Amino acid sequence: MNMKNRARALFIEAVKNVNEAGNELCRPEEDVVSVLICKKAQRATENFLRGFLLDNGVDPNNHNTLDDLYKQCKKLNPNFSKVSLTSFNCLSDKLDSKSCNELSKVNSCYVTANNIDTFLRQEKVIK
Fold first, then answer.
1. What's the predicted TM-score (pTM) here?
2. Which of 20, 47, 90, 121 pairs as cysteine with 14 (C-beta 3.0–4.6 A)?
């Protein structure tokens, strides 16, 4: 599979993860599984960033944290700095090594993942 096709597959998966996290957030508070929202938002963000790199011909496999991926994306498109990833406590951690349980925290991570989705659509990367 070439890089453009891999990027498209990652974008599809990322959008699916954002939607699943959003659906989980819409449940009654006592029924919400916050760690699920955390992981879905984390995975969506990772897939959006990896997809962007692949879409631009960059192999993302050398980048093992959200921060590494994000920095590489900003090098390719300085407009990426419009999207802040500071809501992620796990920004510098190895991917999939941490998760959050606090609802307000996972909500902000969901918002960040959703903001990346919006940004990539505005930039015409995702249609």
1. 0.89
2. 47
